[in-house]
Write a structure and sequence with these properties.
533 residues, alpha/beta, Rossmann fold, 9-stranded mixed sheet, two-stranded antiparallel ribbon, 13 helices, 19 strands, AB_hydrolase_fold, disulfide bond, metal ion binding
């Protein structure tokens, strides 16, 4: 332990200055001999790690922007054994930071020697926005929304670097961002609006088109409400299984994962499954025919909202009924009811309608589409992180790595694909500073058949510090029966191809990246519009 640093872990060491803000309180506490095990799931792009007797200075700062009546808390951990680098950790869902996933990421960061930080954006640990969205019915708290959308991200970087300089006597050599989902959105927002804050950004499964994503996550529920029918999960599971069976081998490998969303949408017709009888756990194991309504809902979830602006829906074959699914129904032996999305339902209710009592369960299509349009008009400049002009970030030498699981059940992978293509349209040299990896079988940020790209953060660091761009990234792929294979992910638009002549799909060397490196070659033209039958 560096005793001089340990002795410096007192409030008087730190005097952060943030223009337009007033510090309300600052606490500094030395944490010694801290041990923990951090799962890969908490780190997104880095492997599992064990902390063993790590010591760090925990600094918690509360501040406000005078006149805005906000109260924001940032928390920094500064390890005594420092690697001279800074890694900020993003949030998830409605949460900006300072919750269990963020703390797992921070544990991983200090295990590797990084100084690290998180912010609650003034929302505390609210898992959903009801406590902070409205000042009163009809009046959105725009300061809170602005803080979580962007402002707190700039604040925490400035505060973090100030704390680092005060504690270690020097600035970090390199600064990084690491986040997934909302944390991925935060990373892209930083690159777009605050391009000088970080040298490298890891932005997994980003909620990039916020004003499209939110209503999309309510779209299956809206359609069920219009139909007046709510399919049993067993019907939706049968449709997912049929889609997987039809599309699994389209990439030349049968492995329980869909690797090409566009090819699968063209190859599989969900209405071909209507009438098929399946065993239904929700009706005590009796057999039930797959209804037309189930096919309509699945088809709509895969194709996206008919008023969409940017992208399609979930990849066919992904889980439509799991805990994070946007197609959830609650059932008993006599029938089912819909379960509104904690994302889209609350967004439309609190931020667009501005009324916690607003009934989202009885909207016409015209009313629903009107809310989508209204949300876009009101909030595009506030919360969107879809600006494709990253030239300032590029010119400052910044690098971005992103990934998106093709079995994501929350955020359509096509949204990241569309954003990457849009950036390429502005900067054709996109591969010089931005690489995106699609992961067949990976669920939302973690889970599913595919392992996370847990070498990608180190590859980002190598790119930033050594100039070595990631041409591929290794993963573990679960093929069943406790058997895993060593595979690769490739930078979009390339795809991993199995070399049959190599003879062993479990070996990384038997996989290579194929296809054009040019994103323009992968553009799909205009988004497909929903067809109901």
């Amino acid at each position: 332990m560096d005793l001089s640093l340990a002795q410096s872990c007192v409030p008087s060491t730190f005097s952060p200055s943030l223009f337009g803000a007033e510090v309300l309180s600052l606490e500094a506490n030395l944490v010694t001999n801290y041990s923990a095990s951090v799962a890969e799931a908490f780190r997104y792009v880095a492997p599992a790690v064990t902390l063993d007797n790590v010591s760090f200075c925990n600094i918690t700062i509360a501040y406000t922007h005078p006149g805005q009546n906000d109260h924001i808390v940032t928390e920094a951990w500064l390890p005594l054994d420092w690697n001279e680098r800074f890694q900020a950790i993003g949030g998830g869902g409605w949460v900006a930071g300072r919750f269990f996933l963020t703390y797992g990421g921070m544990q991983g960061a200090i295990a590797d020697g990084y100084a690290t930080i998180t912010t609650d954006a003034g929302l505390e640990d609210a898992q959903e926005p009801t406590p902070w969205a409205l000042n009163s019915p009809g009046n959105v708290n725009l300061y809170n929304l602005q803080n979580t959308a962007s402002v707190s991200l700039n604040d925490e970087a400035i505060i973090g670097k100030s704390l680092i300089k005060s504690f270690y006597g020097r600035e970090p050599k390199y600064s990084y961002w690491n986040g997934c989902s909302n944390g991925g959105r935060q990373g892209l927002m930083i690159a777009q609006r605050y391009p000088d804050l970080y040298d490298g950004i890891a932005a997994g499964a980003p909620a990039v088109h916020w004003n499209e994503l939110m209503p999309f996550s309510q779209w299956p529920q809206q359609l069920m409400n219009e139909l007046g029918e709510y399919p049993y999960p067993c019907e939706l599971d049968a449709l997912s299984a049929a889609a997987l069976a039809a599309c699994d081998g389209l990439d030349g490998v049968v492995d329980g994962a869909v690797a090409d969303q566009h090819a699968c949408l063209a190859a599989f017709d969900p209405f071909s499954v209507v009438g098929k009888e399946v065993e239904c756990a929700q009706t005590n194991g009796t057999r039930r025919a797959v209804s037309r309504a189930a096919a309509v809902v699945a088809n709509a979830t895969w194709h996206g909202h008919s008023a969409k602006k940017y992208y399609g829906g979930l990849v066919p074959g992904s889980d439509l009924t799991g805990i994070l699914s946007i197609v959830q129904t609650s059932c008993n032996a006599t029938g089912c009811v819909g379960v509104p999305s904690m994302l889209g339902g609350l967004w439309l209710q609190l931020f667009v309608a501005k009324d916690p009592a607003f009934d989202i369960g009885h909207l016409s299509r015209e009313e629903f589409d009107g809310l989508v349009s209204s949300g876009r008009q009101q909030y595009a400049s506030l919360v969107e992180s879809a600006d494709p002009d990253l030239r300032k970030f590029r010119d400052l030498g910044g690098k971005i790595v992103s990934f998106h699981g093709l079995a994501d059940t929350v955020i359509p992978p096509g949204s990241t694909e569309e954003y990457y293509n849009a950036v390429a349209g502005v900067t054709p040299d996109i591969r010089d500073f931005f690489r995106y990896f699609e992961a067949p079988g990976l669920a939302h940020c973690f889970g599913g058949k595919s392992g996370q790209p847990n070498n990608l953060f180190q590859q980002l660091r190598d790119w930033v510090e050594e100039g070595t761009a990631p041409e591929k990234t290794p993963i573990k792929f679960n093929v069943g029966d406790n058997e895993t294979q060593n595979r690769i992910l490739c930078p979009y638009p390339q795809k991993a191809q199995y070399l049959a002549s190599c003879g062993d799909a479990a070996m990384e060397k038997c996989w290579s990246c194929s296809g054009s490196e040019n994103p323009a070659a992968a553009k799909r033209g205009e988004p497909r519009h929903l067809e109901l039958r």
